[in-house]
Design brief:
Length: 568
């Protein structure tokens, strides 16, 4: 979670009121932060804020915390208002950046009065947003420049690697390649563009370089000081929505310092936009839902008042709250997110705890007990249990399995995959929809161990289900993989026979085509006329992709169709 330092005096200047250190401990909670440390330096008190929400970059600075506290205490209500004046500044985006770093959004903030603490917060916000929200600059990189040193129009262009400029912190020109090799930031972030045919550059109409996104600003225009009055904000990345949100966070924080926001026209090869866009976002929530989950007897007007203290504009209509909230937030995805804000404004410490009155006694879930019984059964067959990650990636689930993504192989795996919109790592970018790839991954990492290796897993596969609120469902499955020089389809089938016999089910096999398995040695597992699984010998091409030199036979099936009471 992001941690950052803020000055008590600076916070109170932004809020407009002084508080004791003890009072600040509670006030930080309104901004979803905890007071991690307090110290004195040169006669001034400083706090270390520990943010508890990675979805609220607007709260990662003194400006964001102070704004939230002002509203929570009722000094302001409803939507914070920021006027955006239109400028005549234009940025032209090079078509060659499409596969390099395609999106840039920009803004101007004028009339700033920057002291040392304001400068420190500006740098802090830049770094925290790019590091955490921006995934170490991969998704979002931020540059802030002295606008008085820039001559528009500005060009976000694809440059030859031999181009030169003076990077921040240096006093002599370096080529773009030299910056990646020798500059501290080049070595840290150069991997984001190093293999590209061109490198991104932001230059003005006189050819002055502003920055080399996402690596380093120039010494000429990229050094903002306490003498700077007007700044140009540049944010680049791969997702237009993400860079727009980051821009909104930065410019509204600067506006909290008295800055005047001006928009910039951004001209792409196939469209144009004006940035920033601070149009409020909208959401609706049932008031009874808030009351029910909060466990509080709140009137409609009380809910409205609490939401207004959390920077919502609220219109009550027919038992619903129509909400408008700031453009620097992107965390309202469900009514529970609104409920959380109601409870923060109300105060968690103000809620009286109640001992639950239950008319039943707790007990283990029957299906979970069934899963445990299946595990014991498999161990009794001499198999070793493994527990692998639910998170995986499209390559492991499809490409390494000889499968075409989007094609249905009698639902093993299904044609659709639940993928993560903003994964921390490409390796963990999806939720698995079948288990056999996980077992092959395990085998590939244990090729140095003694054979035979006989594995099983009882685990979850996540499938698309549009009828559910989450649009997904987790299904319990059993997967088995046998690896040794003489393994055959028959050996896997013998274990399957034993499983079905112990569970009290008759089953059938139907010949099938499946690219993950050897043709003629693969079949559908059928129970009560329903296909519940697949069995076969893994195709040599699949084994090669996983780096497995031993033959492998495997089967996988859904457990829910085999669940009855009593079982085993």
């Amino acid at each position: 979670m992001p941690k950052f330092d803020v000055s008590k005096r600076d916070l109170e200047r932004l809020v407009g009121k002084e508080f004791s250190v003890e009072e600040w401990e509670d006030l930080f909670l309104y901004a979803k932060c905890e007071l991690d440390d307090v110290w004195e330096e040169n006669g001034e008190i400083y706090f270390k804020a520990d943010s508890k929400d990675t979805n609220r970059p607007d709260l990662w600075s003194a400006e964001g915390i102070a704004r939230q506290v002002r509203f929570a205490l009722g000094f302001q209500k409803g939507l914070p208002e920021y006027e955006v004046e239109k400028s005549d500044v234009v940025v032209y985006v090079d078509e060659k950046l499409k596969d390099i770093r395609p999106y840039g959004v920009y803004a101007i903030v004028e009339g700033l009065n920057i002291d040392e603490e304001a400068l420190r917060q500006m740098i802090n916000l830049q770094e925290k947003v790019a590091l955490t929200f921006g995934r170490r600059r991969r998704e979002v990189a931020i540059g802030i420049f002295d606008f008085d040193k820039v001559k528009p129009p500005i060009y976000y262009c694809a440059a030859e690697k031999t181009e030169k400029f003076i990077p921040l912190g240096y006093d002599e020109e370096m080529t773009l390649e030299e910056i990646l090799e020798k500059h501290e930031k080049g070595r840290e972030y150069g991997h984001l563009i190093k293999d590209k045919p061109y490198y991104p550059l932001l230059v003005d109409s006189e050819g002055k370089v502003l920055s080399m996104p996402p690596v380093i600003n120039s010494e000429t225009t990229g050094r903002v000081t306490t003498e700077t009055k007007n700044v140009f904000v540049d944010i680049t990345g791969w997702d237009l929505n993400k860079v727009m949100l980051a821009l909104n966070v930065v410019v509204t924080a600067l506006a909290e310092r008295g800055g005047r926001i001006k928009s910039v026209k951004v001209v792409y090869p196939d469209f144009e936009i004006e940035t920033p866009d601070l149009t409020p976002k909208e959401f609706e929530v049932e008031l009874d839902y808030i009351r029910k989950l909060a466990g509080l007897d709140l009137s409609d007007e009380e809910i409205k008042e609490l939401l207004e203290r959390m920077m919502y504009e609220v219109e009550l209509e027919d038992g619903r709250a129509k909400l408008r909230y700031p453009a620097f937030r992107d965390d309202i995805m469900h009514a529970r997110d609104v409920l959380e804000d109601v409870l923060i404004a109300y105060g968690y410490n103000e809620i009286e705890p109640e001992e639950p009155k239950l008319a039943v006694q707790g007990r283990g879930d029957k299906f979970v007990e069934f899963e445990d019984a299946v595990r014991e059964l498999m161990v009794g067959f001499g198999l070793q249990e493994v527990m692998t990650f639910n998170l995986t990636n499209r390559e492991a689930q499809y490409e390494r399995m000889n499968l075409e993504f989007g094609k249905d192989y009698f639902s093993h795996p299904p044609a659709e995959l639940v993928e993560i919109e903003n994964p921390i790592s490409p390796k963990w970018s999806a939720l698995r929809n079948w288990l056999i790839p996980s077992l092959l991954d395990f085998l590939s990492q244990n090729t140095h161990e003694e054979y035979p290796q006989k594995l099983f897993e009882v685990g979850k596969a996540t499938l698309i289900d549009e009828s559910r609120e989450t649009k997904t469902v987790s299904e319990s499955k059993l997967a088995v993989a046998l690896a040794h020089p003489r393994v055959t389809f028959t050996e896997a089938k013998e274990i399957l026979d034993s499983v079905m016999r112990h569970l009290g089910f008759e089953y059938g096999l139907e010949e099938a085509e499946h690219p993950s398995f050897i043709p003629g040695r693969v079949g559908k597992i059928i129970v009560n006329g329903e296909v519940i699984g697949v069995i076969g010998e893994i195709h040599p091409a699949v084994l090669e992709k996983w780096g497995i030199e031993m033959p492998v036979a495997a089967f996988e099936l859904f457990l829910r169709p085999l669940y009855t009471e009593p079982y085993l």
